Each structure stands twice: as structure tokens, then as C-alpha cells.
């Protein structure tokens, strides 16, 4: 029998053996036990570790689902698509299969809830600002991958919403001028959403995107640990260190923040279990009812809407009609005008000129040069149509662009302070309006198209864009409060 | 700051060695060839994304028996993986088509994708106005519109509704000749596939009419 002392020695020897060959202790120290994070982390700082937890849940449940799932659109002996039937098989016949599937489908929604809140924290505390631009950009890349992952995964059960959802989204790419139609065939691997599409989406969903996602999460955390976390005060703790070079307002990640994160994980798992056991369909928002019917290429269900986490952007797509475009150009003109007045950088000014010149050529140029009579007017209309620069194209630009706008935040925010705690009423009001618009857009995206919904979505779309587009000006105008030198906490 | 980073900053470049300039050409050539090989290797992978020969070959013409189709009824058949509708229009339905010109984007179907041998507001082969053959896929983003054949106020589509189709996805409306109404997301009229009548009751979809 070894005594406790001997056992400890053995352990130390083993660790030393590893450390000579792999920097285990060093890694543990730099990233866990001697990684100093601000001591005033609050509720909003739980969502990063929660996102990691959900990622693990998705990967583990996903692996087990793949053991029974079959990516095959052909019909079985009963006339049901094999993929659809394999999901029903998991739900009804595989022991425990129902829970594994519900965990995975609930996990997808939880992932977006957690990540949206995680990103909102960034808006609250200015976490994207220098020197955390890359933390933020890696985050954006993660967000895009997550959207792709959700989209590809949604085709796999091969239900009515799967098929028609994929049909609509892939057709969005067809709106891109010149290459669009070929591109959509290239994405589908067929002229319609078919078995070829299902198989490639399967490959993307189970291996390609998850690999990229894991790489990006690693990069996200490496970047974060290089610059250190921001905090609810937006004060840089690294600016005040003790003699050993440890930030005065920092505490080691382990055990202090780990304990907090574990509490967060427990709460998350409680909520997660309640959903999985008592409301796995999430009222039709997490699993849509129409998706319990196999994909029928000949009949679109009477009400189709994407899953809730895509609906804000889906609303913006629908809101971009030809009668809405003039309002959009007005906003663009306002932003370009303000940029020209307020910015002396040559390159930005040149970009402004380019936008103005492009718009001028597009709208008036050809007309002013006297090409107004037939056949020239037809030719001009033809060029516009031929290039595909219609509302459909701009709708697609809107949908993609409005997601990407988040990536510009580090350069749009000119406020002298980072955190909302020291920002003035102006930013608080604007952020509130932005959040409300986002929620309204999300709501209307779940509803069938209606005239009222359309006008409201258009107003919200403009306000959404203005939040980003006008940030360089309102963030400077805002009356901010003085920022303390050290963190505040009770 | 960790050690390796200090080293990297200490040297001017990432390479700690002093390079022998005479080896530069060799390096460049190796990199160039490597890049070319990389691009070459990517070709089959990119190509594998395009439709396979089997997918390209699918799409044989489909024959439809019209004998059971009564006026006012619609038949859906699958052609090239898409729904093709055959609607047998009543005289009232056909009369309604003439009254809509000012509400439509393209009443004459000049920008529509349709074979040369279909014409008129009915968008059908001359003498076969009764039958409306079209690909039941919305020209916006590809959903399949639903039937809205009831007319007038109780159709739920407005007072002057003469019957037509409503796309469930973003609300595009079409008349009974698949012509899109103004200010809808769908830019153009529904597509009409190549088709030809083999006899009075036999229709072949996917093959052009000759001589018409
Ligand atoms: C798979 C998804 C993600 C995972 C696993 C993840 C993980 C984490 C973790 C563990 C942290 C540190 C704890 C915390 O501050 O909450 C963090 C911080 C951060 N994340 Fe993420 N993240 C994800 C997605 C995103 C996205 C989509 C964005 C924004 C576009 C983002 C932006 C940030 C920023 C700016 C910080 C630093 C916050 C601060 O210091 O105030 N992350 N992330
Ligand atoms: S797909 Fe028909 S209106 Fe959009």
C-alpha cells in the first residue's frame, strides 16, 4: 500500500514527466490557475462558458444521432423518404433516441439564445473595442458558422420545412447578378433540392462546419486570453498591476470564475432539461410542426417560416421591396453625407465619392447623357434587370449585410467610454430601440406576410441599420460620465 | 509576454536564419509549383459539386392523361423534380383574365419564360386555351403557390379577386394564367414548360410542340 505522501510524489513525478514533453502545467497556469480576469464579472459574463457547454452537448448528441440517421432522400418500401423515416425511427424505436434528438434540437435553439445574449453583452460593455477587435471578429466568424450549421442541419430530417426552407435560402443565391443561377445549382448539386443536396448538407453539418467552428472557438479564446477580458466597467485592468505584474483588479480564473461558471452551467442545464422533458417542440418554435411531414417537392405548406433564430433577418429580407428601396437610399445618402463632412481620411472620402458616382450613374447618368428615348430607355431598364439589381437582389444583400454589420462595430463606435455604465442617455435609448426593433423583426418573421407587418418591419429595418450606420456620430454626441480608475463592485 | 513572441519581435522577420540569396529562385519555383499542384488538385473537388451525370439526365418528358380532368380542376404532376400544374379553366375563369391588365406587371408576358407557341392573356397553345400548363414554382424564391380559386370577397383575397394563386412564402399573387400582380416580391410571371398535345386527352410535358 502506498501512503498518501507517496501517492502525491508519484503524481508529481508523472506530471514532471509530462511537463518535460508537453507544456501541460504551463498551459494550465496561463489559461486557468494564473489567468487573471476582472473581479466584477456579472450575469452577462456567464454566456461564453455556457456557449462552450452547449457546443459540447451538440457535438456529443450529434455523434450519437449519426449512428442511426441516414442521409438518403430515396423512398423506402413504405414510400417514405429514408432520411425522414430514419429520424422517426430514432424518435420511436431507438432506446433513448427521442431524448438524444430532443437534446440536439433544443440545443440548437439554446445555442442561439446563449450566443445572442453573449453578443448583446458586447454591445452593453463595448467588449468589441480596441484591443479586442479580433476576439470580436473571431466571434463573428463563429456566428456565421453557427448560422450555416443550423441551416445545413435543418435539411437533414427531410421534412416539409427542411425542404422548402432550403429551397428558399438556396434560391437567394440565385439573385446574385450574373453568376447567381449557376451558383444555386452548384450549391444544390442538382436543379432542385434533392438527394445530392441532402448528402452534401450532411457532410457540411457533421464534419466540415464543426471542424471550422472548433478551430474558431480556439482562436476566439486564445485572442481573449492574449488581451484579457473586458468587464462591466469597461476599465482596462491591465493598466494597474502589483509588483508581480498581476492586475490589481484581477482574480485567478480558477477557482473564482470557474465556480461562477459552474453555477451558470447548472442553471442552464435545469432550463435545458425542462425544455427537453416537458416542451421539446418549444411551442412549434424549436421544432416546427410542418416538419413532422415528409418533404413533398410538389406542395409548399401553407405557412412557412424559418426557425425563430433566423426570423429577424428573414423579416428584413421580406421588408426589402421595390417601394422600400428609396428609403434605404435616403439612409445611405445621409450616412455618406455625414461621413464626407466629418471625416478627413482620403480613402474614406474616395469611397464616398465612389458610392455617389455609382448611384449617379445608376439612376441619372444614362438619362442625362440623352439616352432617354427608345430604345435606350429599354436598354437601361434591361441593364438594371439583366444585372439583377432588383429588389430581390437588394433583399439578399440586406439579409447578409445586416448580419455582417456587427463586424464593423469596433470601428464604428467612437464613444470616449466603453461600458454602458458610463454612457449617456442617448446611447441607452438607441440601444433600447435597437433591441426592440430586433425583437419585433423576429416576431414578424414568424408570421405570414401582411401589409401591417411589412410596414412595421420596414421601419424596424431602417432603425436597425441606423444603429450601425449612425453610430460614429451619436456615439460622439453622447454625454458620457467620467470613468473610474479602478473597478467598482459591491 | 511569452518567450517565443519576444524572439519573433527581436528578429526583423519570422525567419531566424540568414537566407542564402542564391536559393531564392529555387524557393520561388518550389512555391509556384506547389501552388499549381494545389490548384490542380482542387479541380476534381470543385467539379464534384456540380450536378452529376445522373442528375443531368433526369427530366424525361412526362405524359398526362387529361380525360378525367373536369373544368375548374387542377392536376399536379412531377417533371424534373418540380410540380407542373394543369388547370382546366372554365369560361368564366378565362373571361376574368381579360379584365386584369392594369393590375399586372407584365400582362402580355413579354418578359416571361414561356415557349414561343403559347400566347395571349391565357398563355396557352392556340385552340387549347382551356388548359393552363405551368411550372408551379414561384419566380421569387421557389415556393409552390397555393390555389385560390374562389372569387370575390369571400375568397379572402379582396373584393375584385378573379381567382388565382397565392405564394405562401412571401405573399406573391398570380392570376389564373400565372401572371404576377403588381408590387409583389416575385418579379416575373410563372414559367411555362415546353409541352405538346399528343391527342385531345393526352398531354406531353417536357417536349416542344412542332410547327406551332
Ligand atoms: C460557439 C460560440 C462561442 C463560444 C463557445 C464563445 C466563448 C467565449 C468565452 C468562453 C468567453 C469568455 C467568457 C465571457 O466573456 O463570457 C468569450 C468572450 C467573448 N466573446 Fe465569445 N463565444 C462564442 C461566440 C461569440 C460571438 C458570436 C461573439 C460576437 C460576435 C463573441 C464575442 C465575444 C467577446 C467580445 C468576448 C470578450 C467579452 C469581454 O471581455 O467583455 N463570442 N467567448
Ligand atoms: S417564394 Fe413566392 S413569394 Fe417568395
From TrEMBL, chain A:
<keyword id="KW-0479">Metal-binding</keyword>
<comment type="subunit">
    <text>The main subunits of complex b-c1 are: cytochrome b, cytochrome c1 and the Rieske protein.</text>
</comment>
<feature type="transmembrane region" description="Helical">
    <location>
        <begin position="262"/>
        <end position="280"/>
    </location>
</feature>
<dbReference type="InterPro" id="IPR016174">
    <property type="entry name" value="Di-haem_cyt_TM"/>
</dbReference>
<keyword id="KW-0679">Respiratory chain</keyword>
<feature type="binding site" description="axial binding residue">
    <location>
        <position position="220"/>
    </location>
    <ligand>
        <name>heme b b566</name>
    </ligand>
</feature>
<dbReference type="InterPro" id="IPR030689">
    <property type="entry name" value="Cytochrome_b"/>
</dbReference>
<dbReference type="GO" id="GO:0045275">
    <property type="term" value="C:respiratory chain complex III"/>
</dbReference>
<feature type="binding site" description="axial binding residue">
    <location>
        <position position="205"/>
    </location>
    <ligand>
        <name>heme b b562</name>
    </ligand>
</feature>
<dbReference type="InterPro" id="IPR005798">
    <property type="entry name" value="Cyt_b/b6_C"/>
</dbReference>
<dbReference type="Pfam" id="PF00032">
    <property type="entry name" value="Cytochrom_B_C"/>
</dbReference>
<feature type="transmembrane region" description="Helical">
    <location>
        <begin position="391"/>
        <end position="412"/>
    </location>
</feature>
<dbReference type="InterPro" id="IPR027387">
    <property type="entry name" value="Cytb/b6-like_sf"/>
</dbReference>
<feature type="domain" description="Cytochrome b/b6 N-terminal region profile">
    <location>
        <begin position="14"/>
        <end position="233"/>
    </location>
</feature>
<feature type="transmembrane region" description="Helical">
    <location>
        <begin position="134"/>
        <end position="156"/>
    </location>
</feature>
<dbReference type="GO" id="GO:0016491">
    <property type="term" value="F:oxidoreductase activity"/>
</dbReference>
<feature type="binding site" description="axial binding residue">
    <location>
        <position position="118"/>
    </location>
    <ligand>
        <name>heme b b566</name>
    </ligand>
</feature>
<keyword id="KW-0349">Heme</keyword>
<feature type="transmembrane region" description="Helical">
    <location>
        <begin position="108"/>
        <end position="128"/>
    </location>
</feature>
<comment type="similarity">
    <text>Belongs to the cytochrome b family.</text>
</comment>
<keyword id="KW-1133">Transmembrane helix</keyword>
<feature type="transmembrane region" description="Helical">
    <location>
        <begin position="43"/>
        <end position="66"/>
    </location>
</feature>
UniProtKB/TrEMBL annotation, chain B:
<dbReference type="InterPro" id="IPR014349">
    <property type="entry name" value="Rieske_Fe-S_prot"/>
</dbReference>
<dbReference type="InterPro" id="IPR006311">
    <property type="entry name" value="TAT_signal"/>
</dbReference>
<dbReference type="GO" id="GO:0051537">
    <property type="term" value="F:2 iron, 2 sulfur cluster binding"/>
</dbReference>
<keyword id="KW-0001">2Fe-2S</keyword>
<dbReference type="Pfam" id="PF00355">
    <property type="entry name" value="Rieske"/>
</dbReference>
<keyword id="KW-0479">Metal-binding</keyword>
<dbReference type="InterPro" id="IPR036922">
    <property type="entry name" value="Rieske_2Fe-2S_sf"/>
</dbReference>
<dbReference type="GO" id="GO:0016020">
    <property type="term" value="C:membrane"/>
</dbReference>
<keyword id="KW-0249">Electron transport</keyword>
<feature type="domain" description="Rieske">
    <location>
        <begin position="127"/>
        <end position="204"/>
    </location>
</feature>
<dbReference type="InterPro" id="IPR005805">
    <property type="entry name" value="Rieske_Fe-S_prot_C"/>
</dbReference>
<keyword id="KW-1015">Disulfide bond</keyword>
<dbReference type="InterPro" id="IPR006317">
    <property type="entry name" value="Ubiquinol_cyt_c_Rdtase_Fe-S-su"/>
</dbReference>
<dbReference type="InterPro" id="IPR017941">
    <property type="entry name" value="Rieske_2Fe-2S"/>
</dbReference>
<keyword id="KW-0411">Iron-sulfur</keyword>
<comment type="subunit">
    <text>The main subunits of complex b-c1 are: cytochrome b, cytochrome c1 and the Rieske protein.</text>
</comment>
<keyword id="KW-0812">Transmembrane</keyword>
<dbReference type="GO" id="GO:0008121">
    <property type="term" value="F:quinol-cytochrome-c reductase activity"/>
</dbReference>
<keyword id="KW-0813">Transport</keyword>
<keyword id="KW-0408">Iron</keyword>
<keyword id="KW-0472">Membrane</keyword>
<keyword id="KW-1133">Transmembrane helix</keyword>
